[in-house]
Design a protein that fits this description.
The structure is a homodimer of 329-residue chains.
Chain A: E1 4-9, H1 13-24, E2 28-35, E3 51-53, E4 66-69, H2 76-84, E5 90-91, H3 100-114, E6 117-119, H4 128-139, E7 143-149, E8 152-153, H5 155-162, E9 167-176, H6 178-185, H7 194-197, E10 198-206, H8 212-220, E11 230-235, H9 238-244, E12 250-260, E13 266-276, H10 279-299, E14 304-306, H11 321-327
Parallel strand pairs in A: 1-2, 1-4, 2-3, 4-5, 5-6, 6-14, 10-11
Antiparallel strand pairs in A: 7-12, 8-9, 9-10, 12-13
Helix pairs in contact in A: 1-10, 2-3
């Protein structure tokens, strides 16, 4: 069996996760890593796999069936994905929801012109959560959908905390409110405010002599980040931070509360949830599994941009259609 | 907009559910019902829609974009689906897992020869549960999968109870064991026996003068049905049965407990669950939503048999690709 040859662009937490996920999928192999840093300075885990400057991407154009982009959505991917789609089949995890249509257009144009295939916005939200919203809303057209996130680390909110004067280290967890989850599960289709759905929990290591009540006030009042939420701030030692707060757990819930029946009298509930020990490792596992699909669909001649909505589920599995029907249906 | 014209074959609980689901989907319409009973004797809910004998199916061949088969898997569907696939695009909910490959072959042959498209084994298990097994196992290749059913009515077990002498009415609920669910959620990947996963709860209305301890013994010892489970039997009055036990609730859980990371040290959990007020109404909602997909895929020229694994999710929605990306991704 020929393995699916994967290259990685960007070797941070996500890129390293992709490298690890490739090890768990025997029908895939890592062929190269591209980086914006000095390639000499990047030490990867897989022996014998070369690291190149991203500017030298052309060198591996014929060596990779797909390039998985592991940069950030704010500035990296809007540029990199369309650009690299001119040379490769590409997969990214672009997650700025509001800018997806624009990103789609740019990537679609580039990949059509080059005859490549591109999957954008893969991961869990956007990604698996979007997929579950689609299935559940299509099946139960009358009802209400809910998405809850957490408990998990929000990178954006953690960054915001760290910009406050006097903060040495900081991390923020988004937590779904258990009472709200239960209300949704009851089938009552509640209207929930932002405050009722999630709380925000912050752990801060202050600099020596910092005014911690001022830090707490600044966090809690921060517009768009914290002011609409019930926020708690814990001040802890650097040791405690190091011990308990350096992982990247996350998770969440997608729920559809629907009704069926002659007079809409029957309550029907669909709930999808994930609980992740590591957000980047899980997202990476999603990306690698879709590498299988892009290789197959590209070999069938498809080009242009696709999202998780367009990909037949069978393409994600290493099993044949016959095996899937016999074992998994 | 032209509506998707749906015909129903078989007007029991599922067929009636399909009729109700069509009302909830404004882009679909019911055009006819086929029955094995005397058509005159079948009163449906939708005014003006004709009921024909199933032997007269040919009469509506040009009037329906898809025929949804609502018969049973034991004897109806193995015959009906291949036969009616010669005339129509067909959708069924064939759920005898072990016989799916054979059923697939028969339906595939018939529908290819006639140039029609067929979707088999739709619903929730097989169906949505299968889909979730496929996504989760493809994303987390190293791990363990679990399926729990219930709390819900098992038709087969209820039938078995009703065959016992002295039983006037009877119903059986399959119940997942909460402790087992929690063990799986912990990430410990337990090995669970049949007995550890589910219990069986029976409600029986005995005939006057029946030997209830004999009934209880017979139920609990019944091979393949109850002997491997912890079973409780409640004897109740006919009034209580009528009040509390004439609905068809069901549900269940599909869970994937996986590991990622350099030394498989990271626990990752995916859980999908449904809680249904009415099993047939929910299954019917799934079937009608896939009618949208079969109409589209058929109009693109596809023929032959497909399962839920082969159908791109976007085809289930009435929204365009552009709308889906903007609103749901």
């Amino acid at each position: 069996m020929e393995k699916i040859r994967i290259a990685i662009a960007g070797y941070g937490n996500l890129g390293r996760g992709v490298e690890l996920a490739i090890r768990q999928n025997p029908d895939t192999e890592l062929v190269a890593v591209l980086t914006r840093r000095d390639p000499e300075s990047v030490k990867i885990l897989t022996p014998g796999v070369p690291v190149y400057s991203i500017g030298d991407a052309k060198m591996i154009q014929d060596k990779a069936d797909v390039l998985i982009l592991c940069g950030g959505s704010a500035t990296d991917l809007p540029q990199q994905t369309p650009q690299l789609a001119k040379m490769f089949n590409v997969i990214d995890s672009f997650d700025t929801h509001a800018r997806i249509p624009e990103h789609f257009e740019n990537v679609d144009r580039a990949s059509r012109e080059s005859g490549n295939l591109a999957f954008i916005s893969l991961g869990w939200d956007p990604g698996l959560f979007s997929l579950n919203r689609l299935y559940a809303e299509s099946i139960l057209p009358q009802g209400k959908s809910y998405t809850f996130w957490g408990k998990g680390v929000s990178q954006g909110h953690s960054d915001a905390i760290r910009r406050i004067e006097g903060v040495k280290r900081g991390i923020q967890y988004t937590c779904p409110v258990e009472k709200a989850l239960e209300e949704v599960r009851s089938g009552s289709q509640p209207e929930l405010t932002t405050r009722q759905k999630h709380t925000r929990e912050c752990f801060v290591v202050p600099h020596d002599g910092a005014d911690i009540s001022k830090i707490e006030q600044e966090i809690k009042g921060m517009k768009n980040y914290f002011d609409e939420y019930d926020t708690t701030v814990h001040f802890i030692s650097e040791e405690e931070f190091e011990k308990d707060h350096t992982k990247m757990p996350h998770g969440g819930f997608v729920m559809r509360s629907g009704v069926t029946g002659e007079n809409r009298e029957t309550s029907q509930m669909i709930e999808y949830s994930i609980k992740l020990g590591s957000n980047p490792e899980f997202t990476a596992s999603v990306l690698v599994c879709f590498a299988r699909a892009i290789a197959r669909m590209s070999s069938e001649g498809m080009t242009g941009c696709r999202t998780i909505f367009d990909i037949p589920p069978a393409y994600l599995s290493s099993l044949t259609g016959e095996e899937l029907r016999a074992k998994m249906l």
